[in-house]
């Protein structure tokens, strides 16, 4: 386990988001990115909750709460031995969860190496 402060972890998440291609980041709509210690009841690195862009329509997407991407600091740091590994796992998790926001499912992410 490699421990980083919450402030540092949040900066790593922000850096990972900033590393996304600008045209991809510009398409992210109504999504909040959060950091929590751990998921309740299960071991997860990250979780996307919301309505993917591919499922949104003018009549089915109004007045809704923002989508949420949550990264779980304890789970990510728990599998890492260095800060470089934390950086890589945060980036992979951010990309994985952002992909869900764009409607890409786990089977396709596995094929692409982002599972």
3D structure, described in words:
The chain is an alpha+beta fold and 115 residues long. The protein has a single domain, classed as 2-Layer Sandwich (Zincin-like), CATH 3.30.2010. It has five helices and three strands. It has a three-stranded mixed sheet. Helix 1 packs across helix 4. The longest helix is centred in the C-terminal third of the chain and has 19 residues. The radius of gyration is 14 Å and the shape is globular. The mean pLDDT is 89.
Summarize the structure.
The chain is an alpha+beta fold and 115 residues long. The chain is 43% helix and 14% strand. It has a single domain, classed as Zincin-like, CATH 3.30.2010.20.
Present the secondary structure layout:
Elements: H1 6-18, H2 22-25, E1 31-36, E2 46-49, E3 67-72, H3 73-78, H4 83-101, H5 106-112
Which key phrases capture this entry?
globular, Zincin-like, three-stranded mixed β-sheet, alpha+beta, 5 helices, 115 residues, 43% helix
The number of distinct β-strands equals: 3
Shape: globular
User: Could you say what the CATH architecture is?
Assistant: 2-Layer Sandwich
Order of helices and strands: HHEEEHHH
Q: Give the averaged pLDDT, no decimals.
A: 89
| CATH class descriptor | Alpha Beta
Distance between the termini: 21 Å
How does the major sheet shape up?
A: 3 strands, mixed
How many domains, as an integer?
Answer: 1
- What oligomeric state do the depicted chains represent? single chain
Radius of gyration (CA) equals 14 Å
Strand content bin: 5-15%
User: Strands across the major sheet, in which order?
Assistant: 1-3-2
Structural class: alpha+beta
What are the segments in which pLDDT stays under 50 over at least 5 consecutive residues?
none
Helix amount: 40-55%
Task: Output the number of helix runs.
Answer: 5
CATH fold node name: Zincin-like
């Amino acid at each position: 386990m490699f421990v980083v402060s919450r402030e540092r972890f949040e900066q790593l998440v922000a850096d990972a988001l900033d590393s996304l291609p600008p045209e991809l980041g510009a398409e992210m709509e109504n999504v909040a990115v959060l950091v929590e210690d751990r998921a309740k009841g299960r071991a997860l690195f990250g979780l996307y909750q919301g309505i993917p862009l591919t499922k949104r329509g003018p009549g089915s997407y109004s007045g809704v709460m923002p989508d949420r991407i949550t990264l779980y600091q304890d789970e990510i740091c728990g599998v890492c031995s260095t800060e470089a590994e934390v950086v890589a796992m945060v980036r992979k998790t951010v990309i994985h969860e952002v992909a869900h926001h764009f409607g890409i499912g786990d089977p396709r992410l596995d094929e692409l190496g982002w599972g």
